[in-house]
Write a structure and sequence with these properties.
By secondary structure, the protein is of the alpha/beta class. It has five helices and twelve strands. Helix 4 links the parallel strand 1 and strand 2.
Length: 188
Amino acid sequence: MNDKNLVRNQVKDALSQLSKPLYEDFSFKIAGRLFEDEDFKKAEVIGITVSKQPEVDTYQIIRKAWELGKQVVVPKCYPKEKRLTFRTLMEFSQLESVYYGLLEPIEALTTEVSAKQIDLLIVPGLAFTMEGYRLGFGGGYYDRYLPNFFGKTLSLAFKEQIIPQFPVEEHDIPVAKIITNDTTINIK
């Protein structure tokens, strides 16, 4: 586990070096690539996190999805059960700040959506390999969610988040595609 924490710290450090203009520019380029992606174009229901720096900015992606008439669903974590669900999001006012300053859907204002209803799941991560394996932020929520998800998956990442390798475990499920500010990496 130490190796993973070392990688997490190295990537966090690299991301902290990104200036605000570069962060904005790279996020804009990644969003542009995503909007041209066939999986995004075809998806009617998109699962995506509400970003928090240093993650790729997802606010512009959520707005664009709404403009295109797509249904946006965002994660709600249940820390006691270490469980994740997705709930509809129709406006940013349906979000509340929870632990670690993360924004999540307000349950009373949103509706739960099952995994089988999501066409495209944009999976967050801190570091990625060229083979599509991801190193998350340490909670394991997506590791538990992905085995029961059968739609399309992709991740958004700054080039600084693509690293040669890190310890991969038996239960790790790679994403099918990674979109960076430089390129799109098709894995499967």
